[in-house]
Amino acid sequence: MPGSLPTAVFSTSLPTTQPAPRLVSLDVFRGLTVMAMLLVNNPGDWGHIYAPLAHAEWHGCTPADLIFPFFLFIVGVSIVYALDSARRTQPHGPLLRRIGRRAAVLFGLGLFASLFLYWELATVRIPGVLARIALVFLGCGILFLKTTWRQQLGVLAVLLIGYNLLLQLVPVPGVGAASLGPETNLGAWLDRLLLGEAHLWKISKTWDPEGILGTLPAIGTGLLGLLAGRWLRCSGPDAATKVAWLFVASGAALLLGLIWSSWLPLNKSLWTSSYVLYTGGLAGMGLATLYWLCDVQGYRRGLKPFLAYGVNAITVFFLSSLLARSLNMWQVAGPGGPVSMKDFLYQTLLVPVFPDPYLASLAGGVACVLIWLAVLWIMYERRIIIKV
């Protein structure tokens, strides 16, 4: 794990001549992020969710909206620690092929998760969380190998400014003037044109929160992680200087994101440029804090649950998705007729204990996190790390 892409996310065996020092803070940050992802994705009752655990309906940013960009930020940091030594000493061709293969595997896992139990190719959702991770990994991996940090900063600026101009200036065919509406924005039109409504998010049907155009600024989120990783990895500055400047730069990104949001709102589904800077700034500040505590001060107490999640993050995300789909599809007899096994377990085990519906729903999410923690804890103790 020390010199490889975080096992949970990209688990690559890309060779390095000098293993990078293990970033415990990155493992912890990844683990915290995936635990939060499971908590948000698996409430007991979708009709009763505490506001911080629900995504913003459209414009805006809740704590739940921070999880995915944090994950992509971690992607960027991880690439640096995986490839920095190899980039300097080895031919780039084999490294690019391995990056491409692993991106393809991640994309394939996303398609499999969408097909699982239904196997309907005509209506399978093509975009998705794993698909976006794959594309961000691919884009950032290539940029890390082939560009300097200044060029990466330039690409970031072009992506964010260019995406802003596309959303707010380019007329949308069949709609008219540029729009930021869910069904009428340029990204939604492009998804319908290239993928067709049958292959988009089933809840919306006409647009997808992980659509094609929004992947461009999502690569920008990964680039922010790349830049943070390069700063932490560089030799010269002492640890205190690295933490201080990472915190300052991240705070500046957050502030710029808030200023930008006055004319391009924070929006996760659109992955707006302001949202990239705002969430990337928060992610950088979080990593700086954890880096100081875990890697500089050597704090370790109570970190094992986060480490257990962190080293098998993609594994638990993928398997929990399959399990959730299985429990929703499995029908059993209930008092009022057939219900899904998930609802049956929830109504039988949690609702009687927690009469408040919001608390019961939260308990369902917490139970999911704890059940998977038990599995991952055993894997961690036995050093079982499933590589993609």
UniProtKB/TrEMBL annotation:
Pfam hit, one: HGSNAT_cat
Domain Heparan-alpha-glucosaminide N-acetyltransferase catalytic span(s) in chain numbering: 22-168
Annotated InterPro entries: HGSNAT_cat
Signal peptide positions (record): none
The entry's keywords: Membrane, Transmembrane, Transmembrane helix
TM helices/strands, residue ranges: 66-83, 103-119, 125-145, 152-170, 211-232, 244-263, 275-294, 306-324, 358-380
Name used for this protein in its record: Heparan-alpha-glucosaminide N-acetyltransferase domain-containing protein
